[in-house]
Amino acid sequence: MASLLKASSNVFLSEKLPFLSRSKTRQGVVPKKVTFRSAPVTLSLTTSTGTVEHDPISNSPDIAIPIMVNGCAGKMGKSVIQAADSAGLHVVPVSFDAEKNSGQTVELCGKKILVHGPSDRERILASVFQEYPNLIVVDYTVPAAVNDNAELYGKVGVPFVMGTTGGDRDQLYKTVEESKVYAVISPQMGKQVVAFLAAMEIMAEQFPGAFSGYSLQVMESHQAGKLDTSGTAKAIISCFQKLGVSFDMDQVQMIRDPKQQVEMVGVPEEHLSGHAFHLYHLTSPDQTVSFEFQHNVCGRSIYAEGTVDAVLFLAKKVKLKADKRIYNMIDVLREGNMR
């Protein structure tokens, strides 16, 4: 699947986009189809879950790292298992999930993974950690479980990668700091998207006010089940605000209707259940100059591959007994050892 980033000048000319109006209405019928046209400058970034050969004498730790994927009954959890298996990691046959999924057996990549509910989790995790002392937990559960899960991982002492969004983030970091476990915590695991966001943050820091007076229009399309505004969109908008653009978060045009996603945004029908299309359009005060930033993600492979890189990164930090304990995807990117 691909993540597409575009930067263009004066792409829209004087044409107004109905779905990027300044109206406070966040959803509604869109009168015309708008296609995402090619721009003069295009950066196309692609990830896949194909089998990857690893050099056993590289700086990476033992590639057969045992991982426990919590939330394996969900689509993201399953994607991580497929990516991990393709990368040669060892997925242990145990997972935690909501009570409604307790007792299920998830069969994937030739493995049978038994799902446990909330009860007796500490004993089970301690037992798994004893059997697999190099274990790293991957968490893709639900926002309501973030803090309890982090507390559990800290209590048992198992390193973890937290891809689940939501929860009390301040409390999350406090829990990890007090437990002194190793962790990679990031609500955005797509490496290329993280790199784009990092570049935006650098630009905002070094050139504050560079886009003063410009107007901003933002559209983001996600699967219908995502009810809140994208955290990535909020982060990008924050950068634009530092660059001098006046914009309120409630001006974001959220597209959640499948018909609009297909006809207006151009989301392939097979990816309606899992996609992230973002468009940011800047226009100068006299409307003679415009800039467009776009990143489109179909499916979940980009996040799953990033998660696997985070696991490999964290395993190395644990093995080296690094002083720093809490990391994010920027740290993973900076390490430079991504597959």
UniProtKB/TrEMBL annotation:
Pathway: Amino-acid biosynthesis; L-lysine biosynthesis via DAP pathway; (S)-tetrahydrodipicolinate from L-aspartate: step 4/4. InterPro entries: DapB_C (IPR022663), DapB_N (IPR000846), DHDPR_bac (IPR023940), Dihydrodipicolinate_Rdtase_pln (IPR011859), NAD(P)-bd_dom_sf (IPR036291). Gene3D superfamilies: Dihydrodipicolinate Reductase, domain 2, NAD(P)-binding Rossmann-like Domain. It catalyses: (S)-2,3,4,5-tetrahydrodipicolinate + NADP(+) + H2O = (2S,4S)-4-hydroxy-2,3,4,5-tetrahydrodipicolinate + NADPH + H(+); (S)-2,3,4,5-tetrahydrodipicolinate + NAD(+) + H2O = (2S,4S)-4-hydroxy-2,3,4,5-tetrahydrodipicolinate + NADH + H(+). GO terms for biological process: diaminopimelate biosynthetic process; lysine biosynthetic process via diaminopimelate. Belongs to the DapB family. Catalyzes the conversion of 4-hydroxy-tetrahydrodipicolinate (HTPA) to tetrahydrodipicolinate. This is 4-hydroxy-tetrahydrodipicolinate reductase. It comes from Gossypium mustelinum (Cotton).
